[in-house]
Write a structure and sequence with these properties.
8-stranded antiparallel beta barrel, mainly beta, 1 helix, disordered N terminus, 13% helix, AOC barrel-like
Length: 165
């Protein structure tokens, strides 16, 4: 009877440990927060800079690389954590929605219309990070303001979970 209980316990312990062993070295975490900026400089060829708060706290900038025939925009982001680490991001495509008919100066960004990929190549804890971050918010090109919420998941390829940003 004791041997049967031990075998059952050992089987359960082994089964519980398998997912941990399969993910050894990679730890993912949900991230969320907000960013804002003066968008005066978000014009082709220019770069802006604004604060970001939350799990990716620090500063972020964006550069419009061009507009596509379907009305979407190609952007490159530059994100620096509050610790001074670079978060490397793949070029993103923004699919804007114009909430006020006939007014192209006010743009809304629904969840899913603006997703940025975190790619390896940053610095510090971000050197081998991967993941995606999605945005939601609004830009007013009349008032030159932008406020976005962000959320996503970032995975770190290391032996321990990174401390919160």
């Amino acid at each position: 009877m004791k041997l049967t209980r031990f075998a059952l316990f050992a089987t359960i312990a082994l089964a519980a440990a398998l997912p941990i062993c399969a993910q050894e070295g990679t730890h993912c975490q949900d991230v969320a927060g907000v960013l804002m900026t003066d968008i005066y400089a978000i014009t082709p060829g220019q770069i802006n800079l604004g604060p970001s708060f939350g799990d990716l706290g620090g500063a972020v900038s964006a550069q419009i690389l061009g507009q596509n025939g379907d009305g979407t925009f190609n952007l490159q982001h530059y994100w620096i954590s509050s610790q001074g680490d670079v978060i490397k991001l793949h070029q993103a495509v923004l699919k804007p929605v114009y909430p006020i008919p006939g007014n192209q100066a006010i743009v809304s960004v629904p969840w899913g219309n603006y997703i940025v990929e975190v790619i390896p190549g940053g610095t510090g804890k971000w050197a081998n990070a991967t993941g995606t971050v999605s945005f939601f918010g609004m830009a007013d090109f009349n008032e030159l303001t932008l406020v976005l919420r962000y959320r996503g998941k970032v995975c770190f390829n290391d032996q321990k979970a990174p401390p919160p940003s």
